[in-house]
Amino acid sequence: MEIRPFTADDADAVVAVHRRAFGGRTDESRIVRRLHDADKAVVSLVAVTDDRVVGHVLFSPTTVAGHGETVRLVGLAPVGVLPEHQREGVGSALIRRGIARCRAAGVDAVVVLGDPEYYGRFGFERASGYELDNEYGADEAFMVKPLYEGALDGVNGLVTYRPEFQTKE
Predict the structure, then answer these.
(1) What is the residue extent of each domain of the chain?
(2) DSSP class of residue 163?
(3) The whole model's pTM is what?
(4) What CATH fold (topology level) applies to the domain 2-165?
(5) b/e for 71-106, b at 16 or more Cβ within 10 A?
């Protein structure tokens, strides 16, 4: 399996990955397309096996109320893997490589809204422990991973995702 940056040529395959990964739901694929169209993908990676895109992960900017540009947070969402390639480590590899790319790009921390048991494996912790809240009202499922010691010192407040995450057309 190869993990490489997303290119415009991958767009249709990535849409198909997210639709299949999420049981035919289209919200995730629309979010990916909107973020790419707005040039707001900080990190976007695809997993390729036998010349076929089998997985995708995207990290996009988020904001923390009252902190403007002083902290650089990104949201990990969405991550999708074709059903026939799930439980093969594709998603984990995409997440790990994506976090490394975020760190190299100068990102302070990554937030995610998802299963605490799954994302805990990557070092994500409950964001409320850092006094970070979210616009979805989630507690345990809203997590953060600081990318270096002290990354979130003095940072607290409401984390907001990009407008492209609004699912209504």
Answers:
(1) 2-165
(2) G
(3) 0.94
(4) Aminopeptidase (3.40.630)
(5) bbbbbbbbbbbbeebeebebbbbbbebbbebbbeee
